Amino acid sequence: DVKVTQSSRYLVKRTGEKVFLECVQDMDHENMFWYRQDPGLGLRLIYFSYDVKMKEKGDIPEGYSVSREKKERFSLILESASTNQTSMYLCASSSLTVNTEAFFGQGTRLTVV
Amino acid sequence: AQRVTQPEKLLSVFKGAPVELKCNYSYSGSPELFWYVQYSRQRLQLLLRHISRESIKGFTADLNKGETSFHLKKPFAQEEDSAMYYCALSGDTDKLIFGTGTRLQVFP
Q: How many CB atoms are closer than 10 A to CB B91?
């Protein structure tokens, strides 16, 4: 059974804190993604990684950075959390095959207070 | 640039009625299009992809390159179809872009 696992289901952080969201996949996928999901705005791509140490900005990268030191792990970093980063964060992975399916984690609901 | 537009935030129908969830896209290359679904308290998962031309749970979607559309259809909605539906596009770089989603409510 394929798996994408996000380290936390719920997180509460204070404004200004540095926040790490971790995602691990066990499918040997090359591609990994971080999205935020907000009502009425759908899924918006924050960052995309197509290989170890390789990354590409998505549509809303401001305030975020990512790290991919190992193929199976993709971390999202909020350098200085702000209240407008309160959201559901979804991680996904996919292989390089054309028309491949993306597999999603269970999501991390982050609240910044 | 890749863009996916889902004009309806909410679609409400009665059981047995036909359903059409609209999706339009913008992409200069040859797109790969998908529909993903999220049932209550479940992970987002693939429903179908245009290349497969298959029917999943009674849903079909046809890619219309002339109208740049990929609408999702089902002739007879069921209560268990109630969920959030997202249209998605992947281009040459494997970057996967989603629309804003449509919530489908099927009433008994």
A: 17
What's the whole-number mean pLDDT along residues B64-92? Answer: 94
Query: Which residue of chain A has the CA closest to B103?
Result: A40
**What does the alpha-carbon distance between residue B61 and residue B49 come to, in Å, rounded to a whole number?**
8
Q: For residue A79, what are the CA distances in angstroms to A15, A67, A70, B53?
A: 11, 12, 21, 43
Rounded-to-integer distance, Cα B98 and Cα B90, Å: 9
From the number of C-beta atoms within 10 Å of its C-beta (0-12, 13-18, 19+), residue B12 rates as exposed
- In this complex, the residue of A44, A99, A104 whose CB is nearest that of residue B49 is A99
Is the pLDDT score of A55 beyond 70?
Answer: yes
CB burial of A80-97 (b: ≥16 within 10 Å; e: otherwise) equals ebeeebbbebbbbbbeee
Q: Which of A33, A40, A49, A11 is nearest to A90 (CA)?
A: A33
pLDDT of residue B95: 86
From the list B6, B46, B100, which residue is nearest A101 (CB)?
B46
Distant-in-sequence, close-in-space partners of B41: CB < 8 Å, separation ≥ 6: none
CB–CB contact B95 A58 (8 Å): yes
- Search chain A and give the residue with CA nearest B9: A40
